[in-house]
Amino acid sequence: MLVSLSIRDIVLIDRLDLDWQARLCTLTGETGAGKSILLDALALAIGARGDAALVRQGCAQGSVTAVFELDAEHPVQGLLREHDLADGQEFVSELILRRIQNSDGRSRAFCNDQPVGVGLLSSIGVYLVEIHGQNESQALTDAATQRGLLDRFGQLAPQLAKVGKHYEAMQETQRALEQRRAAIAKASQDQDYLSHVLAELRELDPQKDEETSLSDERSLLMNAEKIAADVKEAAVFLRGDNGVDGALNSALKRLERAAPQAAGMLDEAVSAIDRTLIEAGEAIEAVSQAAASITHDPIRLEAVDTRLFALRNLARKHNVTCDELPELVDKFAAQLDDIEGGSQELEALEKAAHAAAQAYAKSAQSLSKERHKAAQSLDGLVNTELGPLKLDGGQFSTQITTSDAEDGAAHGLDRVQFVASTNPGMVPGAIAKIASGGELARFMLALKVSLAAQGDPCTLIFDEVDAGVGGAVAEAVGSRLQRLAEKGQVLVVTHSPQVAARGNSHWRVSKADAGEGMSTQVTPLLEDERLEELARMLSGASVSDEARAAAQRLLEAG
Predict the structure, then answer these.
(1) How many CB atoms are located within 10 Å of the residue 438 CB?
(2) If you ran DSSP here, which 8-state letter would residue 453 be given?
(3) Sign of CA dihedral 234, 239, 243, 249
């Protein structure tokens, strides 16, 4: 629950520290005294949109600090742990939310003194406070909000999460199926082309590095006659009578003859010439082989030219290099195999999509049944509240329209709408169109009292929910607010003495000249002060004994 609220330099409030109590807290005061400022300040602390206009005139910034007391089972505990805001504790018993609003429009947010984004602050605030303004009707007019209220009443969060997971799985399998169908359709359009080019490639059968080897061979064949002539001349130089071989042999014979008398001086020369003769022999053999291999072959040259042209022409056709042609064969073959084998994969995807759709439909239909049960219970509780709230003859009902599974969503198959009639025999209609402002507020109060049976942990705030009603109706509203507060904390801004008298705690909001401009003050009222405030609300500026007596009766009844 909300424990304290500290406000600094917000609109008409320069400095204000309030300690709140459990159960029903009422705030009263003249119109314009600043009651709405308190709610705006609290809303700022729990993540409402900031506004430079909230900063008190002449100040650089304003701030609001709200302190909440939490138990270990409060639903906000999980969110705090998720974002590392629990400070290592098993659970947070005291939560401090602070918002600083600068006059230039910028604002900063803190949770237990740790800086947080305003979005996260707002997500935390949703678990802590629920504010209902005088003319608020979203809870009774917005379909998504109505569905959320029904699910919360029926405690259907686990089933809703299950449906959401099945819906996501169904969407994923359907996307995979559609992508596969599109890929097969596109590939099938190219099947004839792929078959043709693959046959062409396979017929040519390109090999890795073939272009380089063919280019080298073509160069050799084109120059074969000149190369052969040079080789033959080289052979003559090496092997003829005056060739290197004959010269070396002659030199070796003479050195070997002279070596015995040279006292070893010719040994090295003999060895060198001997080695040279061996290498010269190898060279002569290599030249002989080359001479035998290098022949002018016009037929082979034509074949090489034809093959090289075919390779390069096909590479240009597919905008690749000749060395990439073998990879292209593999690529086109894989695409054709994909088309031919795609039917099996498509069949598997269709089965998976069908299974996911069935699982979604089953869980969504189960959720729908639970919603119908919850709707019956909710309708009974709300209608029980209408009589005491002086809506005799009124009727509330929850209409659920269930679509087919094909038209479902993450929240299921149901569209939820709250409808009502305010008089017997009246055709039920959308509650916002049927009910007046005062009736709508009472319908909402009946709904909140019914939902409170599920232990809603929020601090509920009602801003003039009793507007436009008085007498017995105001008394009924006060009674229901008091009942609503039995299981939690309810703050009510009211102009009705019947409602104010029901409060377990009472504050008066007033406005006075503080010397530097008007300032809003909030004063907790003791028993006698509370009697005077109720008497003022009953009689106006001049408080009579009769008004005091009536106020006393209200307090005793409350």
Answers:
(1) 18
(2) G
(3) positive
pLDDT in tens, 52-61: 999 998 899 9
Token readout for 510 is 């007033």
pLDDT over 80 (residue 295): no
Enumerate helices (H) and strands (E) in the chain, giving the number of each: 19, 15
Contacts of 418 (CB under 8 A, 6+ apart): 140, 146, 396, 397, 398, 399, 430, 431, 447
**pLDDT, tens digit, for every residue of 76-90?**
888 898 898 987 788
* 179-188 as b/e: b if 16+ CB within 10 A: ebeeebeebe
> pLDDT digit string (tens) for 233-278?
677 666 665 667 677 777 777 777 777 777 777 778 778 877 887 8
CB 130 within 8 A of CB 76: no
Q: Identify any residues that bridge with 5 across adjacent strands, giving them in sequence order.
A: 18, 66
Sorted by where each starts, the structural domains of the chain and their CATH numbers stand as: 1-134+464-522 (3.40.50.300), 191-337 (no CATH), 526-558 (no CATH)
**Prediction pTM value:** 0.62
Nearest to 414 by CA among 397, 402, 406, 399: 402
**DSSP, residue by residue, 318-372:** TTS-GGGHHHHHHHHHHHHHHHHHHHHHHHHHHHHHHHHHHHHHHHHHHHHHHHH
**Widest CA span in the chain:** 161
Classify the C-alpha dihedral 137-129-511-12 as positive or negative: negative
Residue 47 contacts residue 514 (beta carbons within 8 Å):
no
